[in-house]
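Input record, target 12 of the design panel.
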């Protein structure tokens, strides 16, 4: 079955032929894809994986050392050093349950070069390797500047042993405690708090697909990857678009193990952790996040959706920004179209949320921010959101972040 699905995918999307002809071990249970561009310390990531509790089967690592065709000599030298580290690790440190494959693509067209393309190269190789075994196994994304918890491999294996699991996301925590630069430490606390405030706000608003979308935390079943058209080539935000393409289709699971992304500054992508840190160093002003009032206003909209299965769309009770946004996106026509395609309210709501996906919700959030609901300080918003959960907010940002991590974990644990 998987062979046919992957064959259709590779032909339709003109996927690169397999880089490696050697079939995976028959007991392979996980394939992990790691893009590496200008990564000076990949050994930290590899050693973290090796120290973890081994799963029941073999693990493949596909590392994609990449660069655009106009890469500087400095970048290529860093990449060469990365390759040397990988080869030394394979020869001297790699445990028996891990088998590493190295892909070098250092002349990628400038228009394509970026995080999405690097992930795509590795994930396309992974899906073809699963097809060699005709096994519908998981493809896991990790970055070359991350470490992982000891249970990372075994929990990933366990979650994907359930056939219903199609896509997953690990927990994440930036290890701000290890950051010796106080400015970067404060910056990463603010950035992670912003991420968690947004997801918690959407949960309180009643959005059913409120999930984190951290690229180094993604996992997807091979068949779902191929059926969805694979990874996109976006230079940044590839993780957000990829996950929100898949999650509305069902089969999403949170994986109870943790990835620890880097807190470093980076100019490699136009947004994300590294860019946020760079901007924080440049400004050092009080960090802002979306107003908590946005989520309250969204809640009235989201609660109305199921009524639209057998009633006309009514916008008069919504705030002006929501009314204007929905009108601009032709909500009445869209709902009528979805209604005609739906034989039950369950199908109607599922199709509605496929249309009102994470990208549309983010666009609505930004529209509201720009039309009457300006961003507010992170500490103010986080306290309001905690109050909504009857949690007494802590006094400082670090403690607030810990509270949000615990709230996140509790929400995930309850399913």
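The sequence produced for target 12 reads:
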């Amino acid at each position: 079955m998987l062979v046919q699905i992957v064959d259709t995918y590779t032909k339709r999307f003109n996927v690169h032929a397999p880089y490696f002809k050697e079939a995976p071990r028959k007991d392979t249970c996980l394939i992990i894809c790691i893009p590496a561009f200008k990564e000076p310390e990949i050994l930290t990531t590899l050693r973290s994986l090796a120290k973890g509790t081994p799963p029941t089967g073999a693990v493949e690592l596909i590392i994609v050392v990449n660069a655009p065709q106009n890469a500087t000599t400095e970048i290529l030298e860093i990449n060469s050093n990365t390759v040397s580290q990988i080869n030394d690790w394979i020869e001297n440190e790699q445990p028996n349950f891990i088998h590493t494959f190295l892909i070098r693509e250092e002349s990628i067209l400038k228009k394509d070069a970026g995080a999405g393309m690097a992930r795509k190269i590795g994930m396309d190789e992974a899906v073809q390797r699963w097809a060699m075994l005709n096994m519908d196994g998981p493809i896991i994304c990790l970055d070359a500047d991350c470490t992982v918890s000891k249970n990372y491999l075994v929990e990933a294996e366990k979650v994907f042993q359930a056939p219903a699991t199609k896509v997953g996301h690990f927990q994440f925590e930036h290890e701000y405690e290890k950051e010796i630069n106080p400015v970067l430490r404060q910056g990463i606390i603010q950035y992670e708090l912003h991420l968690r405030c947004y997801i918690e706000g959407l949960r309180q608003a009643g959005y059913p697909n409120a999930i984190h979308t951290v690229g180094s935390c993604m996992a997807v079943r091979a068949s779902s990857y191929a059926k969805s058209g694979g990874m996109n080539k976006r230079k940044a935000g590839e993780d957000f678009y990829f996950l929100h393409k898949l999650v509305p289709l069902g089969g999403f699971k949170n994986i109870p193990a943790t990835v620890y992304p880097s807190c470093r500054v980076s100019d490699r992508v136009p947004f994300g952790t590294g860019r946020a840190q760079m901007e924080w160093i440049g400004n050092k002003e009080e960090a802002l996040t979306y107003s908590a009032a946005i989520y309250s206003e969204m809640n009235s909209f989201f609660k109305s959706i199921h009524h639209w299965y057998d009633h006309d769309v009514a916008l008069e009770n919504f705030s002006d920004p929501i009314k204007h946004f929905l009108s601009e996106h032709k909500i009445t026509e869209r709902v009528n179209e979805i209604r005609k395609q739906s034989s039950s309210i369950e199908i109607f709501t599922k199709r509605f949320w496929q249309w009102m996906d994470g990208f549309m919700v983010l666009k609505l959030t930004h529209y509201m921010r720009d039309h009457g609901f300006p961003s507010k300080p992170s500490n103010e918003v986080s306290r309001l959101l905690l109050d909504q959960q009857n949690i007494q907010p802590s006094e400082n940002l670090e403690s607030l972040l810990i509270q949000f991590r615990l709230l996140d974990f509790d929400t995930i644990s309850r399913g």
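Strands lie at 28-36, 58-68, 98-108, 138-141, 147-148, 167-172, 218-221, 252-260, 288-289, 376-377.
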